[in-house]
Structures are given as structure tokens and as C-alpha cells.
Design a protein that fits this description.
about 140 residues; mainly beta; Immunoglobulin-like
């Protein structure tokens, strides 16, 4: 049930993100949910303690390519989870997935997040893509 909820939530975030270019957030009574996609890479963004940061990145898992966390300030950010949402029909070779990372801001200061897109067994090669985000937690 949790996986279905995460998949639906991620697809909803992705749908809204493409309808309204630029990052967006939803405010709840106790925290905000801020979503970022690959085109947001390199940005510096202000967030509040308690906010949830969602990063949505496309990957071709069937070809071995995965997004991997290589830098995460664990003093200021809590890693909640990473989920994979299938975007292609079952059995389709080379089909795309959506990798969704959930983080929560827990302490004030500047926090860096860096993700790389590569095949895990090719770690000696430079990554195909890099996503990095700087969060100023207030």
C-alpha cells in the first residue's frame, strides 16, 4: 500500500511540475513539500526546518543506470527514502523509471545534495549526469 501511495504521489508531483515550470511547493499545516527535477540542478534554495524535499529524476534501470547519492549533509538533512516508479509498460526493454528521493530538513545551515547517474559497476568512469542542489535550511 505504501509503494502505491508513493508512486501516485510521485506521479502527481511530476505532472504538476511539468504543468507549472519552476520549482513548486505545497504547504501543509506543519511543513512544506518542495519538488525538484533534473533541470533544477545547481540551484540554491531556502527551506524551513521540517520541510520535505522531493527530487524526481528519470533513469533507465533496465540498462543498469541508477541515480546514486554521493553527497548528503546528514547533520542538516534526514534521508527518508528512495523509491522507483515504473514509467514504461512491463517487460519493455530500456523502459524508463522515475527515481524519487525524499529528504527532510532537520537543522539550520547550508546543506548540499549531490546525486550521480551511472552504472554502479562503472564507478571508475565519470558519471553520465550529475544533479546537485544546495539547501539553505532556516
Amino acid at each position: 500500500m505504501r509503494k502505491i501511495f508513493v508512486c501516485l504521489f510521485a506521479l502527481l508531483l511530476l505532472f504538476v511540475r511539468f504543468l507549472f515550470p519552476g520549482s513548486f511547493s505545497w504547504a501543509f499545516s506543519e511543513f512544506n513539500v518542495l519538488a525538484f527535477v533534473e533541470s533544477d540542478s545547481g540551484r540554491e534554495v531556502e527551506v524551513a526546518k521540517g520541510d520535505v524535499v522531493v527530487i524526481l529524476l528519470r533513469e533507465v534501470e533496465t540498462a543498469g543506470y541508477l541515480w546514486e547519492v554521493v553527497e548528503l549533509d546528514l547533520d542538516r538533512l534526514l534521508f527518508l527514502s528512495s523509491e522507483s516508479v515504473k514509467l514504461s509498460p512491463p517487460g519493455m526493454l530500456g523502459g524508463e523509471n522515475l527515481r524519487v528521493f525524499f529528504l527532510r530538513a532537520v537543522a539550520s545551515g547550508k546543506a548540499k545534495v549531490k546525486l550521480v547517474y551511472r552504472r554502479p559497476w562503472e564507478s571508475f568512469k565519470p558519471p553520465d549526469r550529475v544533479f546537485h542542489l544546495t539547501l539553505r535550511v532556516k
